[in-house]
Design a protein that fits this description.
- There is one protein chain.
- The model has no long low-confidence stretch (mean pLDDT about 90).
- The chain has a single domain, classed as Gcn5-related N-acetyltransferase (GNAT) (Aminopeptidase, 3-Layer(aba) Sandwich), CATH 3.40.630.30.
- The relative contact order is 0.15.
- β2 (about 50-55) and β3 form a beta hairpin.
- The chain is of the alpha+beta class.
- The longest helix has 18 residues, at about 15-30.
- The chain has a four-stranded antiparallel sheet, sandwiched between helices.
- The chain is built from three helices and eight strands; from the N terminus they run βαβββαβαβββ.
Length: about 150
């Protein structure tokens, strides 16, 4: 298995990379999860982007959100795995890489996220604790979580 990890600022993305990233996000969040929302929300140009490919196909992705964009502390979001690659459990490596990038780039271990409620235990494995009541975001149950 020839997995390659990529990390780029928005302005470094090629048009093909951006197309593939948005395509995967729309496929999972809007089609698979049947959630209509503004996928192109204006945050991507302010963020950096982390993803994994195999044979040129994006299998896992998230965006790294700097402080002041979503929260007062760094965050990550749009965490997604390709439906055909979920058996590879790349979400775990994605989390380790995203946390390491945030710690190194922003010199903090504090990360705040808006997590789909069903993923609470997944994020808890990486030190995230629930800090809000459950709420609906784009029609899906979410909660804020914080890692110190």
């Amino acid at each position: 298995m020839n997995l390659l990890w990529h990390y780029k600022e928005f302005d470094e993305l090629t048009s093909a990379e951006l197309y593939e990233i948005l395509s995967l996000r729309v496929t999972v969040f809007m089609v698979e999860q049947d959630c209509l929302y503004n996928e192109v929300d204006g945050k991507d140009p302010k963020c950096s982007h982390l993803w994994c490919t195999m044979d040129g196909k994006i299998l896992a992705y998230c965006r790294i959100v700097p402080p002041g964009v979503s929260y007062e502390v760094p965050s990550f979001g749009r965490v997604v795995s390709h439906p055909e690659a979920r058996h590879l459990k790349l979400g775990h490596q994605l989390m380790r890489n995203a946390i390491e990038i945030i710690q190194n780039h922003f010199q903090t271990s504090q990360i705040k996220i808006s997590a789909q409620t069903y993923l609470k235990n997944f994020y808890a494995q990486y030190g995230f604790e629930q800090t809000s009541e459950e709420y609906l975001e784009d029609g899906l149950p979410h909660m804020e979580m914080l890692r110190n």
